[in-house]
Design a protein that fits this description.
The structure holds two protein chains of two kinds. By secondary structure, chain A is α/β, with parallel strands linked by helices. Chain A contains 16 helices and eleven strands. Chain A has two domains: 12-244, P-loop containing nucleotide triphosphate hydrolases (Rossmann fold, 3-Layer(aba) Sandwich); 251-383. Chain A has helices at residues 33-36, 38-47, 60-68, 86-97, 112-124, 148-154, 165-172, 186-189, 191-198, 234-237, 251-268, 277-293, 312-328, 336-347, 353-366, 373-383; strands at residues 70-71, 77-78, 101-105, 130-132, 144-146, 161-163, 175-179, 200-203, 208-211, 217-222, 240-244. Chain A has a five-stranded parallel beta sheet with strand order 4-7-10-3-11. In chain A, strands 1-2 form a two-stranded antiparallel ribbon. In chain A, a hairpin with a 5-residue loop joins β1 (70-71) and β2. In chain A, α11 packs across α12, α12 (277-293) runs antiparallel to α13 and α13 runs antiparallel to α14 (336-347). Chain A is globular, with a radius of gyration of 24 Å. By secondary structure, chain B is of the alpha/beta class. Among the domains of chain B are: 68-313, no CATH class; 354-429, no CATH class; 443-527, no CATH class; 818-876, no CATH class. Chain B has 37 helices and twelve strands. In chain B, α18 packs across α20 (531-545). Chain B is elongated, with a radius of gyration of 37 Å. Classes of the chains: A alpha/beta, B alpha/beta. The interface between A and B is medium-sized, with 35 and 35 residues.
Chain lengths: 384, 877
């Protein structure tokens, strides 16, 4: 669930269309970045007089501007796609410019996918070369597969080969994206090693190879704090430059993101807007941030951090759950009691250690806090 | 690769064109290097067709201003490696006959020491008022400081070097209220943006950077001066361009608030420059903060300058060299110079070429030493990334921020954790300076001598004992001094056990002044100029480095004893942080008693202990939360240890009391809740459960019936015999007066008796050692009484007090008259005198304080005191 500046628009009817029917861009649930921001990309390209690496649609400087926003000399306003540290975007763009693969790390809700899509769109003008990483991603998705009908009919030929997005990107000098790299089984991950270091993909069946042309690059995204993931081997890791996308920098920014997303989800679930919501959202975000950072908001007291990630995405689901509780079983006003159980569930992932962490936090931080008495009581109730 | 093209052509006066190939940074800038001409009437004085280095030109126009044939004014940024390089090149080219440096002129006599073999920067010139060592100023100099470079150049070339700033005698006398005189040295335009800006002056560097369209003055300076990138719109020949820029800045500033202090300093510098020119001819070079250059250039009459300097207060000062560290340079404020990356600067200054590549290689080496996998491939990729980043950001050369970003992305997997190590070891660095033995004494020694005189405590080589009565001011001062010295590692006095009273207000010391203690004092000089300041700084530093929670608590106690209120706050903060992150309840429990003791002791000494109380209460809270879950799944030894923790916490909570902390009330009641949880939980080992019941019973928080019920549960058939025996041990064992309890409450004794008789033969041998340990600790009289009770059997026991025949020492009934006779004495002991109770309150406090101070008795002793006190109070009331 990327936290993005542009949220997707929900188009309810599109789901019912028969498959195969061609849809125009506007009717799609969500257009690709290069379609949605075609105007901006064109304006940038027109005014970009800085040197561009081979097959790049824009210069690195213009790519950074596309992501971070700005105003061009002719007055075209480029909307910011990523609100965050300029430094990170610069490192990411520079990495791609040095034809190193880029690994975007972060907990859920830090806009990894969003950033990778826009980078691909700005650099190669095409964000559709995509490998979806799952536990079942086969090696064919990274190397190549076969059209078995042709294979049987014609024997192994280049025509019978079904190229993967990676192979296509190598051939055309484009940017390929690998989503959720750490979910891909380790042996499949490792097929990327040679591609990234030697920039070549051998096809032993044909005695051929595909050599990457200049401009080929790879952006991978991964979540490093989830459990049950396949850690990258150090050999693969070495081939990436890593950029860790941080959680929102300030509490206000995070409250803003949570509020907006909760609002959208609430509407789609037909939940009535609850008064008093913003106060509880602020509290949930504060609790999450403090436990995550191991430090209270005023910077004066350290607290232990629980084992869970406590990402912004989790804060959103806690608040949404609370809204549903208050709408269906409460008086329609979002109260501390509605979110307390959700917070407890998000914080206490490991019943032994996290519970102590949580109680210590309750007793040493929450209890003393001005105006948090109801929250404290509600949490005590559900914790007991 | 230094190449000099001295030449003076054109212009009204002498023009020096310097082409200083500082060799900064290798090939990167090579391509577009363009010559930078000296400006202001210089005609082709210098030109570089730079292939080798980066913009290696500092055109210097000596004749810009109104002073014909004026001195060579080298405006620098303090601690800027680029400036240092430029200064060296300029001096090489101009070969002045004297070098004048911004610094206290009293240090002129110390200049030759800089050439000493044993002198190794970073060092600092330290000036302090003779009669008040606490008032001091520092001029830190690192290898890459332009001032140091100028000093060494002068010494190497047998050219006289002078310091020309306002004498420390004036500056120390004038600024009574300003603490951070060390800032003064960095107060020029080169002052780092991180350092606090003097009140009346805007940061000139920031103003220039803003004018150039940069938001970060630091980076602007690096780009324009330190990296001296060619082809950059901002790149101007450093000295001249800077002088012009400063001139422009100061023009606007002149109408506003001109800093009075600066005006005086500059007047003095002008006079000194004139004097030097009379002595050595016009050919002198001045190395000073760029900010001052326009002022030195300005034509002001001697009379006007003299007038400004008239009537300045002065004080007697002493100067010396002291060793410095990179860490200190990097601290902004205090004694620091606010240089955030001294290690990086030193590297820039020392690296022959390709500074980025060399730096990344060093980083890789460091990370490898820490067992991180870093290959040469990583270094290559990091260097490429840094270069690309610099290009993307429009910088002439990768600076520290680009290299750091590259290291993070390539070598550290995007994590900041290894990066912190790089920052600590390399960017700041571990460099420690050294000063020759011949340097004058440090002010700490003077302060110590002065304090010793004041307290009439002479250092003597022979061993002697010193009894101190802390109620007397002099003795309290002596105690504080000795405690402070101990914190500094100067073990002049050793605390000894008092022979007579163990009161809080008495201390016994064994004194002996060994000759090597003088060396220790000199070493301790790096911490500060007075014993108080040094001990405070040392305690703060120790708090960061000591290992466990208990050590920090002990340190807090020592801070209290040494009377270091300023150190206490940081120590407490660290203690609170450590406590928050410590997951071992045992550690927390061990730390608590010392803290509570400090708290009470602090009260006795009248020290502010609010922070201490907060931390103690916080610590107690954490123990409360963690204790129940820490008490499960323990083996016998761990359970025994945990019982000890429960006891110490109980004692500490009792002492901490509820009154000590408004707003944090109810500690005691919450502790009782925790104990209740403990007694009721089967997973908690018997010895802890038994102890919890006993503590509650003693506090009156548990009715005797309830206690009997718990005991019944613990000793019922279902419970394993070993666990039951442990419960008994916890309940009545270990010198806690348990025997008397059994003696008096026959129900409890009956329960024990019934259980014991029901234990099977095999189990009996198992529980016997434990029971033996429990009962063997009782006093003989108690043991005999118990034995008699048991011998009499359960039937007779019910009427033990009624028959009056049995228990030795007890009458059948209560003799009210005799009991009344005891009451007055009890009241007196407890400070509960019938009337005028207020006055005796203090005495009561003292009595309790004594208990707290009793040292070895520790928690047990005190908790008993407290408890007995309570019971007696009830009797009395």
């Amino acid at each position: 669930m990327p936290v993005s500046v542009n949220e997707m628009s929900v188009n309810e009817s599109s789901g019912e269309r028969p498959p195969g029917e061609r849809l125009s861009g506007a009717e799609k649930l969500r257009p690709h970045a290069e379609q949605a921001f075609a105007g901006e990309l064109a304006a940038l390209a027109a005014q970009d007089d800085r040197p561009r690496p081979a097959r790049w649609k824009l210069s690195p400087w213009a790519v950074a501007t596309y992501l971070l926003g700005g105003t061009l000399p002719d007055g075209t306003v480029i909307t910011p796609k990523y609100v965050g540290s300029r430094r990170l975007v610069e490192v990411a763009v520079s990495t791609l410019a040095t034809d190193r693969a880029l690994l975007l790390l972060g907990v859920p809700g830090t806009a990894k996918t969003w950033v990778s899509e826009h980078l691909a769109a700005a650099v190669s003008g095409d964000s559709t070369l995509l490998v979806q990483g799952t536990a079942g991603t086969p090696e064919e998705a990274i190397r190549y597969g076969w059209n078995y009908a042709r294979l049987l009919a014609e024997g192994p030929t280049r025509d019978a080969l079904v190229p993967s997005p990676v192979m296509r990107a190598m051939r055309d000098g484009g940017t390929v994206r690998v989503e959720e790299l750490t979910r891909i089984p380790a042996d499949v991950q490792d097929s990327l090693i040679t591609i990234l270091s030697e920039k070549t993909l051998p096809i032993p069946e044909l005695g051929q190879e595909v050599q990457a042309v200049r401009g080929f690059n790879l952006i991978a995204t991964a979540n490093d704090r989830d459990r049950g993931v396949n850690d990258l081997s150090s050999a693969l890791r070495r081939r990436f430059n890593t950029v860790v996308l941080p959680l929102p920098g300030t509490a206000e920014a995070e409250v803003e993101i949570v509020t907006r997303r909760v609002d959208q989800i609430g509407r789609s679930l037909d939940l009535p807007p609850a008064p008093g919501g913003i106060e509880e959202i602020r509290r949930v975000v504060t609790v999450f941030r403090e436990l995550r950072d191991g430090l209270t908001g005023d910077g004066r007291t350290k607290v232990k951090s629980p084992s869970g990630t406590l990402s912004t995405a989790e804060a959103i689901s806690v608040v949404t759950g609370g809204l549903a509780l208050s709408a269906h079983f409460g008086d329609g006003v979002l109260r501390a009691g509605d979110v307390a159980a959700g917070v407890l569930g998000a914080v206490v992932r490991d019943p032994a250690t996290d519970r102590v962490v949580w109680q210590e936090y309750l007793e040493t931080v929450v209890r003393e806090r001005e105006g948090w008495q109801d929250f404290y009581r509600a949490c005590r109730e559900v914790s007991a | 690769m230094r190449d000099v093209e001295a030449g003076g052509v054109g212009g009204a006066g002498g023009v020096r064109g310097v082409k200083g190939a500082g060799g900064t940074s290798g090939a990167r800038g090579g391509g577009g290097a363009s010559g930078i001409d000296g400006i202001g009437g210089v005609d082709g004085a210098s030109r570089v067709d730079g292939t080798g280095g980066i913009g290696e030109v500092e055109g210097y126009a000596g004749a810009v201003g109104a002073v014909p044939g004026g001195p060579l004014l080298l405006g620098v940024r303090h601690h800027g490696p680029g400036s240092a390089r430029a200064v060296r090149a300029a001096l090489e080219a101009a070969r002045p006959r004297a070098v004048l440096i911004e610094g206290p002129p009293e240090a002129d006599a110390l200049v030759p020491l800089a050439a000493d073999e044993e002198m190794r920067p970073p060092v600092a010139l330290l000036a302090h008022a003779v009669d008040e060592p606490g008032r001091s100023a520092f001029w830190p100099l690192a290898e890459f400081s332009p001032e140091w470079v100028a000093l060494r150049w002068a010494l190497d070339h047998d050219v006289p070097a002078r310091f020309v700033d306002l004498p420390a005698a004036h500056s120390l006398a004038r600024r009574d209220h300003e603490e951070r005189d060390g800032e003064e040295a960095g107060g020029g335009p080169g002052e780092r943006s991180g350092a606090p800006v003097p009140e009346s002056r805007v940061d000139p560097l920031a103003a220039l950077a803003r004018a150039a369209g940069h938001d970060d003055p630091e980076r602007w300076w690096e780009d324009v001066v330190e990296h001296r990138g060619p082809g950059d719109g901002n790149a101007l020949a450093p000295f001249t361009a800077l002088e012009e820029a400063m001139g422009a800045l100061r023009e606007t500033e002149e109408d506003g608030a001109d800093d009075d202090r600066d005006r005086v300093r500059e007047a003095y510098m002008r006079l000194q420059v004139r004097a030097a020119q009379r002595e050595f001819g016009t050919d002198v070079a001045v190395v000073c903060g760029a900010w001052h250059v326009p002022a030195l250039r300005r034509g002001v009459t001697v009379a006007a300058d003299r007038a400004l300097l008239k009537g300045l207060p002065r004080t007697k000062v002493d100067l010396t060299w002291v060793p410095w560290t990179h860490r200190r340079l990097s601290r902004s404020g205090g004694y620091g110079a606010g240089v955030e990356s001294p290690g990086w600067y030193a590297h820039l200054f020392a690296a022959a070429d390709r500074p980025v590549e060399r730096w990344l290689t060093r980083v890789a080496g460091l990370l490898r030493d820490e067992d991180r996998l870093v290959s040469p491939g990583h270094v290559i990729e990091a260097a490429r990334l840094a270069g690309t980043l610099a290009a993307l950001r429009g910088r002439p050369l990768a600076g520290l921020s680009e290299t750091t970003d590259a290291v993070r992305a390539v070598m550290c997997d995007g994590s900041d954790v290894p990066l912190a190590l790089v920052r600590d070891r390399l960017v700041v660095g571990d460099v420690l300076g050294q000063v020759p033995a011949g340097a004058p004494a440090v002010p700490l020694q003077r302060d110590l001598a002065r304090t010793q005189r004041g307290l009439r405590l002479k250092p003597e080589a022979r061993r002697r004992e010193l009894e101190l009565d802390l109620r007397k001011d002099t003795d309290a001062g002596r105690s504080r001094l000795l405690h402070r010295l101990r914190l500094l590692g100067v073990d002049w006095g050793e605390p000894a056990a008092s022979r007579g009273s163990t009161g809080t207000f008495r201390e016994t010391w064994r004194l002996r002044w060994e000759p090597e203690l003088s060396v220790r004092v000199a070493e301790a000089g790096v911490w500060g100029t007075t014993v108080l300041a040094a001990a405070t700084a040392r305690a703060e530093a120790d708090a960061v480095t000591v290992g466990g929670l208990a050590e920090v608590t002990a340190l807090a106690e020592r801070c209290l004893l040494a009377g270091l209120p300023d150190a206490l706050a940081p120590v407490m903060r660290i203690l609170a942080d450590r406590a928050a992150l410590d997951t071992d309840v045992g550690h927390l429990a061990q730390a608590l008693p010392a803290l509570v003791r400090s708290l009470r002791y602090g009260d006795v000494r009248g020290t502010g202990t609010r922070a201490l109380a907060e931390v103690a209460a916080g610590l107690a809270e954490r123990v409360f939360v963690g204790l129940p879950s820490a008490c499960v799944a323990l083996d016998a030894d761990a359970a025994e240890e945990m019982r000890g923790h429960v006891d110490t916490v109980h004692g500490a909570v009792g002492l901490l009391g509820d009154a000590s902390l408004p707003g944090r009330g109810g500690l005691r009641s919450r502790w009782q809740e925790v104990l209740r949880t403990l007694c009721a939980r089967d997973a908690v080992p018997g010895v802890v459960r038994g102890r919890a019941v006993r503590l509650l019973l003693d506090d009156g928080a548990l009715a005797p019936d309830e206690a009997a019920r718990f005991m019944g549960l613990a000793l019922s058939r279902g419970a394993p015999p070993a666990d039951a025996a442990a419960w008994i041990e916890g309940f009545v064992g270990g010198g806690s007066g348990g025997g008397m309890l059994l003696l008096h409450d026959e129900r409890l004794l009956a329960l024990v008796d019934a259980w014991l008789t029901g234990v099977t033969a095999e189990a009996f041998t198992d529980v016997l050692p434990l029971l033996r340990r429990t009962f063997a600790a009782y006093e003989p009289g108690v043991r005999r009484g118990l034995g008699e009770l048991v011998r009499r059997g359960p039937e007779a026991r019910g009427s033990v007090t009624a028959t009056g025949s049995g228990t030795p020492g007890f009458a059948p009934g209560l003799d009210v008259e005799r009991a009344d006779a005891v009451l007055p004495v009890v009241r007196l002991l407890l400070g509960l005198a019938t009337d005028g109770a207020e006055g005796d309150g203090a005495q009561g406090d003292n009595a309790e304080g004594d208990g707290a101070q009793a040292g070895n008795a520790e928690g047990d002793g005190r908790s008993r005191t407290g408890r007995d006190g309570n019971e007696l109070t009830e009797v009395g009331a």
